[in-house]
Amino acid sequence: MSLKKEVVVSEKAPAAIGPYSAGMKLGNMVYTAGQIPVDRATGKVVEGGVAAEARQSLTNLKYVLEAAGSGLEYVVKTTCFLADMGEFAEFNAVYAEFFTDNPPARSTVAAKTLPLNVRVEVEAVAYIPE
């Protein structure tokens, strides 16, 4: 059986800001690009600090997953990037609102600089239920 990769595009999440896809489907798996806190309606980074940025990044992630036929409940792994690990607790509180039951495996790393100078970026690997 040969697997074919398929680009995932969400009409609700912001468009990619570079030469990459928001997500890629391969078989029953979806791999997302890092989602940053850009509001698609305004095209701007949300204001309000790390909690607001985390909420928007995770909402954008949800939209990309849904466009692939998946969802947050099917995420098996996330990688989270923070501009300041001193904001980890605040980020973690918002993250816990999105992943309430059986949270996925996760890595959280500090990044010196993120695209558009945001505080948060989140990417995921999820399966697509049959």
CATH architectural designation: 2-Layer Sandwich
Structural class: alpha+beta
Radius of gyration: 14 Å
**Low-pLDDT sequence parts:** none
The averaged pLDDT comes out at: 96
Strand content: 25-35%
Superfamily (CATH H level) name: RutC-like
Output the strand order for the largest sheet. 1-2-3-8-6-7
CATH class descriptor name: Alpha Beta
Would you count the extended β strands for me? 8
Q: Note the run of SSEs as H and E.
A: EEEEEHEHEE
What is the fold-level CATH name, i.e. the topology?
A: 60s Ribosomal Protein L30, Chain: A
Q: Please, could you describe this protein's structure?
A:
The protein has about 130 residues and is of the alpha+beta class. The protein has a single domain (about 5-125), classed as 2-Layer Sandwich (60s Ribosomal Protein L30, Chain: A). Helix content is about 25%, strand content about 30%. The chain has two helices and eight strands, in the order βββββαβαββ. The strands form two sheets. The chain has a six-stranded mixed β-sheet with strand order 1-2-3-8-6-7, with helices on one face. Strands 4-5 form a two-stranded antiparallel sheet. A hairpin with a 4-residue loop joins strand 4 and strand 5. The longest helix has 19 residues, at about 50-65. The chain is globular. The two termini are about 15 Å apart.
